[in-house]
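Narrative summary of target 7.
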Amino acid sequence: MTLSNYNPHNRYRQRAQERMTNAISMVLVIALSACVGFWMGKQYGVERNISLEEQVDNLTKERDTLQGSVTELRAEAQTANTRYEQIQAEYNAVLPEGPMQDLTRLVREQLTQGMAPERLAFFIKSARPPTDCTDPDTKRFVVSTPSYSGPDSSASVAEGAVIIKAKGSSATSKAGQPEAWFDPAKNVEVSFTTADGNEVKKGTLPIRHSAVVANREYRFTVEEGAKSFAKVTFDSCAYP
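Modeled conformation, tokenized:
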């Protein structure tokens, strides 16, 4: 009879060794995977850090460039402001502000429109402050209307050198009927007659006018007087 050499303990020992080998292999695989992952993560971190550093460098350069541009613009703006102030000062010195500026502009406009410089100079010299003026005097006259049937009325100034007349619109009664006297709220025509001709001024009272007669300038103000009347206040000064 033949006896078998099979030993069950050897089988259990072999299985235990296989399990141990598989476990060690698994641990090695996991460890290797962890090492590879750690290495790849480290490499990614290094590359990411390099990329960020490059971005920081680029942004820093852009910031420095922008700061330089801002500094240049501020310097240019300061220079422009200084130049503007200089030009403004020069402009004010040549053409001052206020009445002198307005008068200078008017003179330029008159010369541009063709007025002779000599004539313009004459008028400017004639505009000097009045001298040898008389005291104001007042006269009155009737303002004629379409309904007025009385005699002609006028005011004579400077011994008849200036004759002043006026006509206006009739006032109306409460019933709407025209009256003989004029309506001072409506336009009036005032004529000033001299040896040089007749000049008519139209508008609501008061009306102002001036005329030169025999080397004197007469200044008139025509305004409302008593019913039917207008009054003219005038004086005269040496001319020119």
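The helical segments are 8-94, 99-112, 117-126.
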